[in-house]
Amino acid sequence: MVKTASVTDKPIQLRVFPHRLLQPGTAECLLNEIDQVKGVIRMLINGKNLPRKVTCGPGTGSDVNHPDRTIIHVGGCAFELHIIVGEVVVEVENETAVEEVKKACERALPFSFEIKRGHFIKRRPTLTDYGKYGFKSRTDERLNLDDERLLGLIDPNAKAETHLCITNTEEKP
Known about the structure:
By secondary structure, the protein is α+β, with helices and mostly antiparallel strands. It has helices at about 25-35, 95-110, 125-135, and strands spanning about 10-20, 40-50, 70-75, 75-80, 85-90, 115-120. Strands 2-5-1-6 form a 4-stranded antiparallel β-sheet, covered by helices on one side. A two-stranded antiparallel sheet has the order 3-4.
């Protein structure tokens, strides 16, 4: 079930920017705390890439065994971290959820952080979204999507959708 906001009620987007890069355990704790907040629509993590292979230099093609490239569990979904988490973008339904996200960050992060409001994830379909999902029909301009939370989260350079984790489609208690 996808939650939809009314026309007058636009979702609020927040960028949680910790003053340090997050270790996998801290990132997992933070994401689980934010996932427990009622009113969170979607989350997006950003950070520095952790490559699988050396791309240049004398060791080109050899494996990179970085200790931060681990599997974490968020909201009942397990996925491998391909980045060192540097920021988390969160979209929430209302103002009370904003305060709850701040409290969740204070519980999970043992150091300082900033939370900024803004527009960080696209709310309308992009050309890449149409290319990836297509239209429902020739006369219909809507996308052929089961879950509208995917809008603006498509990486056109990604080879697969393995970097996407849908944790919970039900209402939170």
